[in-house]
Amino acid sequence: MHFDDRLATVLRLRATGERAAKTQFRQLIDLLGERPQAGDRALKAAAYLRLIALGEMIPAKTRAAIVGEAGWRFRNPELVKWFGEAHPHVAAAALYRAQLRGAEWAELIPKLPIRARGFLRHRRDLPREAVEVLDRLGVSDRALPEPEPLELMEELAPPQEDAAPAPVAAAPEEPATRSAPGKEDVRSLVARIEAARRAARGEQASEDPRLPMGDEPAKPQGELDYFLFGTDAEGRVDWAEDAIAPMVVGIDLTTLGSTAVTQAISRRQPLSNTRLTLRGARRIEGEWIVDATPRFSRSEGHFIGYVGRFRRVVADVVDRREAEADRLRQLLHELRTPVNAMQGYAEIIQQQMIGPVPHEYRSIAATIAGDSAHILAGFDELDRLAKLEAGVLDLEPGQCDFAAIARRQVSQLQTVLSPRVARFDASLGDARAPFALEQGEAEMLAWRLLATLAGATGAGEAIRLDLDTEGDQIEFSSTLPATLREAEDIFSVETRTTTGALSAGIFGAGFSLRLARAEARAAGGELLRDGDRLVLSLPLLTGAEAHPLPESAAG
User: Per the CB 3.0–4.6 Å rule, which of 5, 64, 294, 404 could disulfide with 89?
Assistant: First the structure.
C-alpha cells in the first residue's frame, strides 16, 4: 500500500499554474512508471485522469522534454501504452525511456499505434522478443533502406539537363572507379552526389547532404510545391519530412476518395500521377499529384508500405471561406477526443464502475465530468457556427409561432431576473407571428438571444422588448443592457454572465449573439444593432402560407 499512499498524497494537491502542473506531472509519471503492483484501481484511474488534465496545461513540447529527461525508467506496460497513444513528440520520448521485459514488450507492441511502433524501431537495446514482434508486424526503420532509396529518388527526381555528373570536386583524391552503391555508406554517397551537382552548377558545396530530388529556389513557408512521404501497409502516412510531418502523418490515402489509390494499395502496385485532394493545414490544402513506389521487407518480402512524393497541382483554386470552416471542424474533431476520454474516466470513477471510490474522489470526478460536458457543448456551438457561416448547414424547415415562443420564454426568464430586481418590460401583444422554421430550431434561436440579454442585465435594469408583425417581417427588438451598450462590436464582446442561473455560453455574450445572427441569416432573417437596440428580423408567413398551428407549436 506504500505506492497507493504516495499516489493519494500527490492527487490531493491541486496544480494552480504551469510550474505546479509540471511538478505534479513528474511526480505522477514517476509513481506510475514503477512495476505493476497491487493497489487501488480507482486511484490509478484518477491518476491517469489527472495526467490528461495536466496535459491541457503543459505544451506538448514541454511534456516531451520532461518525459525525455535522463533518469526515467518506465517499467509499467500500462503507462508505456498510455504514452504510446499521446502526442507524437511525447510518445517518442517515452518509448525511448521505456524499460520492459521481453514478454511485456511482446504483449504490448501489437497494442501500440502504428506510429508508436515506428519509434521503437530506432532503438538498438530492445530484447529479442520485441525485435521479433516488430519484424513479424512489418515495422521497418524510418530511414530509407539501402540501396532502394537512391534508385527511387533518381526515378522521382525531375529530369536534369546534365547528361552525367561532373567529377566530385570536394574529393579529388578518390579513384575514378567506385565500388557498387550497395556496399557504400548511403549518407556519404548522397553527399557526394549532391556535391557533384552543385559543382556542375558552379555553386558552393554545402556540408548538409540532401536527397537528389532536384534543386529549386527556396519557397516561402506558405508555398509548398512538393514533399516526401512514406506509408504503412494499410496506406496510412507514417513518415514525412520534418517540416510537413505534423500536418500529414496519420492521413489514410484510401479515404481520400480515389478508387485508383485503393486498388493500387490492395494490389501492391506503384502510384503514378495519381491526383488526390488534401484537407487540413493551409500549407497542404488543395489538389496534389502522388508518385510512390511499394516497399517490401528484405527478410521475408512482406509488403510494408509506400515511399514517394506529393507534388502540388499548378492550377489550384480553393474556396478560402469553406476551407477555414473545414479546418475548424477538423480541429474540433481532434479536441473532442481527449475531452471525451476525460469525461469517460470521470464517469467511471464517479459511478464506481471498477470498485469502491472515496467520496472525495467521486466529488472531484463529478466536477470533471460536468466541466467536460460544458466544454463539449461549447465545441458543438463552435461547430454549428462554422457550418452556418460557411453555408453548409441548413436549419430544419417547418412552421411555428415566434410570438408564442417569445412570450413563453420571457415569462420563464422573469423569474430568474426578479431576485436581481431586474426585469423585461415586454410589449409582445397577443397576435400570432407565423414563421417558417421548425419549432425546436426557433426555440433555440429565441432562447439564445433572450438568455444572453438576461445574463448581461445588471441589478435594477429594465430591458424593453417589442414585437412588431406589420408588413412581411417579424421585427423583435430589445434595448441593450449597459454592459453590451458600451461595446463597439456586440458580436465580438467577451462579456460573460456573473450569475450561475443564466449562461451566455462558454465563449461569452458576443459569441452567442454571433451564433444567433448566423441562425437568423440561415432562416432568411437578420440580427443587427441599431443604436442602443438589438433588432431581430424574420420573414413572416402571411395568407395561405400561414396554416393553423397545433396547440403545442402555438404555445
Answer: 64
Predicted confidence at residue 139, as pLDDT, reads 61
| Nearest-angstrom CA–CA distance, 83 and 77 | 10
User: Rounded to whole angstroms, what are the CA distances from 145 to 152, 186, 187, 299, 463?
Assistant: 11, 9, 11, 12, 73
In angstroms, how far is CA 362 from the centroid of its own chain? 29
Query: In this structure, what C-alpha cell is assigned to residue 545?
Result: 402560407
Work out whether strand 473-479 and strand 303-312 pair parallel, antiparallel, or are unpaired.
Answer: unpaired
Domain spanning 400-554 has what CATH number? 3.30.565.10
pLDDT computed for residue 334 by the predictor: 79
Three-class DSSP category at 451: helix
Provide the pLDDT for residue 209. 41
Torsion angles phi and psi, residue 287, rounded to 5: -90, 140
- Domain spans in the chain, listed from the N-terminal domain onward: 2-136, 226-318, 321-390, 400-554
Asked whether 181 and 189 are in contact (CB, 8 A), the reply is: yes
Contact (Cβ atoms closer than 8 angstroms) between residue 240 and residue 248: yes
SS3 letters for 201-263?
CCCCCCCCCCCCCCCCCCCCCCCCCEEEEEECCCCEEEEECCCCHHHHCCCEHHHCCCHHHHH
What are the residue ranges in the chain where pLDDT is below 50? 1-3, 141-184, 201-220, 316-319, 498-499, 551-555
pLDDT recorded at residue 165: 43
Collapsed DSSP state (helix, strand, coil) of residue 410: helix
Which residues is 230 bridged to in the sheet?
239, 307
Amino acid at 217: P
Smallest Cα–Cα separation from 299: which of 145, 135, 144? 135
pLDDT at position 231 is 92
The CATH number of domain 226-318 is 3.30.450.20: yes
The answer to whether the CB of 82 falls within 8 A of the CB of 48 is yes
Task: Identify the burial level of 184 via C-beta atoms within 10 angstroms of its C-beta, where 0-12 means exposed, 13-18 middle and 19 or more buried.
Answer: middle
What the block records as the C-alpha cell of 184 is 557504400
**Residue 296: beta bridge partners?**
303
Residue 182 CA to residue 375 CA, distance in Å, equals: 56
- Cβ pair 57, 21 in contact under 8 A: yes
Percent of the chain with pLDDT over 90: 7
In degrees and rounded to multiples of 5, residue 288 shows phi and psi of: -135, 155
End-to-end CA distance of the chain: give it in Å, rounded: 62
pTM above 0.90, yes or no: no
Q: Fold match between 226-318 and 400-554?
A: no
Mention every residue, 6+ apart, whose C-beta is less than 8 A from residue 183: none
- What is the CB neighbour count within 10 angstroms for residue 295? 24
Q: Is 248 exposed, middle or buried (0-12, 13-18, 19+ CB in 10 A)?
A: buried
Asked if 421 contacts 459 with a C-beta cutoff of 8 angstroms, the reply is yes
Q: Which residues of 332-359 are buried (b: 16+ CB within 10 A; e: fewer)?
A: beeebeebeebbebbbbbbeeeeeebee
